[in-house]
Design a protein that fits this description.
252 residues; three-stranded mixed β-sheet; two-stranded antiparallel ribbon; 9 helices; 11 strands; globular
């Protein structure tokens, strides 16, 4: 039994490495986003149930504003680590032109986070099942089951999974008691504020945005605000050609 478990672990870890190599090669072929139109979204077969999604209207995002990031990181006890090697980020901003290439003429920074894919390569690569897709579309992490193999990091084509190389608690200046702290040797990332959703609250980044530039809702509900925006606007996704089906969209 132990031999079989070990073989399965190695098999999944190898799949994660290969997926990561493929994703890395894809990142070299163009911008980080691809254009999707409202017509393309409308052509997707209807899905039932709940699938949370997020949309950023970057036209309304104030230049230099980081309130969404600050709120996210404070709410979830994300450690403030200066070194690039050990940096932990649930949410961050990247140069739009560098990410979008010819699709974006602006150098304004745009928010980036876990895409909570409908077909998450990170979950497929995880040998312990500690990273998984919930029935509501959120890709979650069970910190207690994570063994720190980092297969999910290798397989994520967006680079949105962080690893705690050191004790993150030592880098928390003002921890909140509303969300658990992590420990050295585990991965972490955005969780779409699943801890707040169960209390009937919106994600912290949505509440913190002073311009209402972030929309959040059920992608499978045609009457939701996010669906109305998707069907009336031309939007972008990060590398949908990879087949991961991201749940995060952008209006540029």
């Amino acid at each position: 039994m132990m031999k079989n478990d070990r073989r399965e672990f190695i098999r999944k870890a190898g799949m994660g490495l290969l997926a990561g190599m493929g994703a890395a090669s894809g990142l070299l072929t163009g911008g980080g986003f691809e254009r999707t139109t409202s017509a393309a979204w409308a052509a997707v077969p209807g899905e039932e149930g709940l699938r949370w999604g997020m949309l950023f209207d970057t036209r309304r995002c104030p230049e230099g504003c980081t309130l969404c990031i600050e709120s996210c990181h404070h709410t979830h006890n994300v450690p403030d680590i200066a070194s690039p090697e050990g940096k932990i980020e649930w949410m961050h901003k990247e140069n739009g032109r560098e990410l979008l290439g010819s699709l974006c003429a602006s150098t304004a920074a745009v928010p980036a986070l876990c895409n909570h894919c409908a077909e998450p390569s990170c979950a497929r690569a995880c040998p312990t099942g500690s990273i998984f897709r919930r029935t509501d579309g959120i890709v979650a992490i069970d910190y207690h089951r994570c063994v720190g193999c980092r297969s999910c990091m290798q397989s994520c084509p967006y680079g949105e999974v962080s690893f705690n190389w050191s004790d993150p608690r030592a880098a928390l200046k003002n921890p909140t008691v509303e969300y658990p702290t992590r420990q050295r040797g585990v991965v972490e990332k955005c969780n779409f504020c699943s801890d707040r959703l169960v209390r009937g609250k919106k994600p912290s980044c949505v509440e913190a945005c002073p311009e209402g530039a972030i929309s959040f809702g059920n992608l499978n509900d045609p009457s939701s605000e996010i669906r109305r925006l998707l069907e009336s606007s031309e939007t972008l996704q990060r590398k949908p050609e990879l087949g991961t089906r991201p749940s995060v969209f952008y209006i540029i």
